[in-house]
Amino acid sequence: MQLFTWIMKISRPRFWFYLLGPFLLGIAAYEFINFSTDIDNYQIGLILAGLFFTLPANLLIYGTNDLFDYETDKNNPKKKDYEVLLEPEQRKCFNIILIAVVLPILTLLLMTLLFDSNTASSSIAFDPNIVGLWSLAGFMFFGIGYSAPPIRAKVRPFIDSFFNILYIFPGLISYGILTEQWPPVYIIVAATLWCMAMHAFSAVPDITADKKAGLRTIATELGRENTLLFCFISYGLAGALTFKDLGLLSILGSIIYLTLMALAYKASTKAELFGVYKIFPYVNVVLGFSIFWYIILSR
Questions:
Q1: pLDDT one-digit tens code per residue, 28-37
Q2: CB pairs under 8 A, 24+ apart, for 24-28?
Q3: Is the CATH number of domain 184-299 1.10.10.10?
Q4: Which member of 35, 38, 88, 143 lies 3.0 to 4.6 Å from 166 by CB, making a disulfide possible if both were Cys?
């Protein structure tokens, strides 16, 4: 039980929605009326992808982050009570668990994207889903490259925020499995801006610990106030780009995020800033859930 609890803490359950949410939004964006009840390859792919974006994918990206962040994490108070510190002597055990959790389901998902199975004739044909494959490759590249050498984007200011595009790929995968098409470019741009703002804001509470460890991030480079201004502008642009599809919901979402950025900007202590930071997962879940049902009910 202690091992399970330890693994769950590393996977950051409160952040699971950041991967599973976009995956569900990708499904919602598809015309549900065309959704077949037959057990086709795409349904198997959706099930596998949905499972992948729970424990396995989160353990992969956050575990990789913890593997290479010990020097800064040991100076970060957030790791003492809010999260968990992955000690050097625990790495071998964690790597074994990581491979055992991720590799089987990742392999099965890859197979469904490469081959089309016909259950009626029990035949399998090479028929790659290009969108799904590129999206899965993008998730693995950005998800691992954010923390791991030789890229280690998280210590490259501004590139670190761009690499947070990894969070849009679950939605691209589910949408690609169902349609074999890419969504409109402006949606991808809006999602990228939102992800960059989310990352930049999450880096603000870590400024002191990152500087102490000699790490450069968008937040250490711009400073607290300018980073929050960057987030403010990015959230505003993301809301403007999605107005065509989400209408008043995009305005409401923008107001909420912009208000949170203003509160963070006005925070006079680290405790106040961290208080705003802790609200974010709940705001993201509520708004993501609202967008999901808005899309479905508007079809």
A1: 888 544 545 4
A2: 24/174, 24/288, 24/292, 25/171, 25/288, 25/291, 25/292, 25/295, 26/170, 26/171, 26/172, 26/173, 26/174, 26/175, 26/176, 26/178, 26/183, 27/174, 27/175, 27/178, 28/291, 28/292, 28/295, 28/296
A3: no
A4: 143
Q: Which residues 6+ apart lie within 8 Å of 106 measured at CB?
A: 52, 56
Scanning the chain, the segments in alpha helix (DSSP H) are 2-10, 17-28, 41-52, 55-68, 70-73, 78-81, 91-114, 130-145, 159-162, 169-179, 185-203, 207-212, 218-246, 248-266, 270-297
- Say if CB 254 and CB 197 are below 8 A apart: no
| Domain spans, the chain | 1-154+166-178, 184-299
- 3 state DSSP class of 115: strand
Sign, Cα dihedral of 33, 238, 24, 283: negative
Distance CA 91, CA 60 (A): 13
Q: Which residues of 40-53 are buried (b: 16+ CB within 10 A; e: fewer)?
A: ebbbbbbebbbebb
Mean pLDDT over 212-232 rounds to: 92
